[in-house]
UniProtKB/TrEMBL annotation:
Domain Carrier: 8-87
Superkingdom, natural source: Bacteria
Record-given protein name: Acyl carrier protein
Listed Pfam families: PP-binding
Length: 97
């Protein structure tokens, strides 16, 4: 099972990616984990594809076409939950840290 410290790291990595790629005003620190990327105007359809590539490359998981939905990719919490579901517990701990 993932420890709290390791699971937080998933959110931190997603937050850093969003800040580096979509936030030009440096507001990533104030973005709530459940805040909608689309609602905040941070990401568009091309951004979603970039986010999928980031998730696959960073965490070593494959995101299927039917998983490319707002519930999985429209917030830091959604992306982190998707990653946790896709990673075996021991692999998740290794990649999260």
């Amino acid at each position: 099972m993932l420890t709290q410290e390791k699971t937080t790291t998933i959110e931190q990595r997603v937050r850093a990616f969003v800040a580096d790629n979509y936030q030009f005003g440096g507001t990533a620190a104030t973005l709530a984990d459940t805040e909608s990327f689309l609602g905040a105007g941070l990401i568009d359809s091309m951004g979603v594809l970039e986010l999928v590539t980031f998730v696959e490359d960073t965490f070593g998981v494959r995101v299927a076409d039917d998983e490319v939905v707002p519930a999985n990719l429209d917030s830091i919490a959604g992306v982190a939950a998707l990653v946790r579901r896709k990673l075996p517990a021991d692999e998740g701990a290794r990649r999260a840290g």
